[in-house]
Amino acid sequence: MILRDEAATLAAGAELAALAKAGDVITLSGELGAGKTTLARGLLAALGLQGEAPSPTFAIVQAYGPPETRLPVAHVDLYRIEHPEEAEELGVDELRGDHLLLVEWPERLGAEFWRGALRLRIEAAAEGGRRLTADVPPSWEARWSPR
């Protein structure tokens, strides 16, 4: 899927919000400035968040819940994580059962940690804008298919 501009990236996040539920994990990979946080902001806005969601780069985990959003969400940015053991201290694994997890820089914990996740990658497209690619797990196949 080609995301031509910021508005298209926000809209892709909103499309995912309509399909997401507590217990889902969506990982967002891509270089710095690729649009990971923008996609997450579109999703969060569609879930009801008023105002712009801050990037969780420094907080690492930014949590939202009803009535702020229609379901509990944890927006996680693992960019500053050096070792997988650090994630245990953050409680990311405990949030999996009752939150929608949006995880930027998931590769910091390794692919095995994210089994069953909808894995999204955003990268520059040769024709301009960004290209969104997805590894769609069985739990998402009936809900969403990237165009």
Automatic annotation (TrEMBL):
<keyword id="KW-0479">Metal-binding</keyword>
<dbReference type="GO" id="GO:0005524">
    <property type="term" value="F:ATP binding"/>
</dbReference>
<dbReference type="InterPro" id="IPR027417">
    <property type="entry name" value="P-loop_NTPase"/>
</dbReference>
<keyword id="KW-0963">Cytoplasm</keyword>
<dbReference type="InterPro" id="IPR003442">
    <property type="entry name" value="T6A_TsaE"/>
</dbReference>
<keyword id="KW-0460">Magnesium</keyword>
<keyword id="KW-0067">ATP-binding</keyword>
<comment type="similarity">
    <text>Belongs to the TsaE family.</text>
</comment>
<dbReference type="GO" id="GO:0046872">
    <property type="term" value="F:metal ion binding"/>
</dbReference>
<protein>
    <recommendedName>
        <fullName>tRNA threonylcarbamoyladenosine biosynthesis protein TsaE</fullName>
    </recommendedName>
</protein>
<dbReference type="GO" id="GO:0002949">
    <property type="term" value="P:tRNA threonylcarbamoyladenosine modification"/>
</dbReference>
<keyword id="KW-0547">Nucleotide-binding</keyword>
<keyword id="KW-0808">Transferase</keyword>
<dbReference type="Pfam" id="PF02367">
    <property type="entry name" value="TsaE"/>
</dbReference>
<dbReference type="GO" id="GO:0005737">
    <property type="term" value="C:cytoplasm"/>
</dbReference>
<dbReference type="GO" id="GO:0016740">
    <property type="term" value="F:transferase activity"/>
</dbReference>
<keyword id="KW-0819">tRNA processing</keyword>
